[in-house]
Amino acid sequence: MNGAVVITPPSENAAKVAAPPSGRLIEFDLLRGLAIVVILLGHSVVNSNHGFPVWLENLVRGGTGVFVFISGFFFHRIFYKRFEYKDFMVKKAQNVFLPFLCVSLVGLLVGLAGSMLIDGSTWQVAVGRGWEQVKNGYVLFPHWYIPFIMLTFLCSPLHMHYIRLQTSAQVATLLVFSLVAIFMHRPLGNVDPLQSLVYFTPFYLLGMLYSQYLPWFRQYYRYLFALSLLALVATVWLQSEVWVHLGNYHKAPFKYGGVDLQFIQKMGLCIVLIGLCERLTWQKISDHLCMLANLSFAIFFLHPLLALAWGNGHYYLVKHGYLGEHQTVLASLGLSLLLFLFLLYGTVLLINVLKPLLGDKSRMIIGC
């Protein structure tokens, strides 16, 4: 047994960080920037299932879990020590829910205009389509995240209780929620925030634990990284080559649909990306990711507007014969890269234009 590696669980007293330090961790600032990049990559896939590589799509889809992991980390690190429920919820309503409403209104108006100008729909038909979107709880597709994350914030007293549990109870709770999520999957059309709450709660809990037991995670990180990377590669291969499934897993909550390999993959990705961020030595890339991190919420809120403009423009060009469909692998990758750059840096440009115009109301309207 000499030379064997034994990973001991964090002790109840020595490893638990009840009052986290307030200093920032640069790797998590970088991770915030990298997370929004992953999310936009997942929203930039062109020719899904018709030219775009399946394994690559399965890798870039579903980046929301990383976002939720980061939220859980910062809940413990920043808010736990000075948590006051009312103030916490008021700030989340101002800085998360209000921008969601403002940008959704703009998206609804753009959608109505596109329906009438491009499709030639009557205003009654256009309004009917808009109402169908509103009934789902969101207008712009990526914004399904906001009703769910607001429910997560509403559950903050439960998260406070979770932090105070014994380590064994914390791990058991994480495992139970993970097992449920693996078989429950994400909701159909992402329209059920309660199902999303249950599905993504393990990411939030893992983020809190990573902050709470930071010294332990750092001590054993090399082994956790290896296991996480193995899980990531294995699940991408299984999902793409063995039990072939494209992208995220969606179904009704109580209908059996097999194992959600995306869940396992993205839990592993959270750990892998931390290591990449900790070891990032290229200062220009670090500075760039920090810039994206500072704008990440605004990028998340606003990039669907540019995606809507891209989609309407592409639809118009194809409909009138100005553009053909190109479904080769090279064309799919090239168009996806072009769309990603348009969404990311077009949104950054839009933010830089809007922020000075909106002044001190910018955070409540666009999220930064």
Automatic annotation (TrEMBL):
Keywords: Acyltransferase, Cell membrane, Membrane, Transferase, Transmembrane, Transmembrane helix
One record GO biological process: enterobacterial common antigen biosynthetic process
Bilayer-spanning residue ranges: 58-75, 96-118, 138-155, 167-184, 196-213, 220-239, 259-277, 289-310, 330-354
Membrane topology, from the record: Multi-pass membrane protein
Pfam families xref list: Acyl_transf_3
GO cellular component, one term: plasma membrane
Keyword Transmembrane: yes
Every Acyltransferase domain range: 27-344
UniProt entry tagged with the keyword Zinc-finger: no
Subcellular location: Cell membrane
A GO molecular-function descriptor: O-acetyltransferase activity
InterPro entries: Acyl_transf_3_dom
Cited PANTHER family: O-ACETYLTRANSFERASE WECH
Family affiliation: Belongs to the acyltransferase 3 family.
Name of this protein: Acyltransferase-like protein
Species lineage: Bacteria, Pseudomonadati, Pseudomonadota, Gammaproteobacteria, Enterobacterales
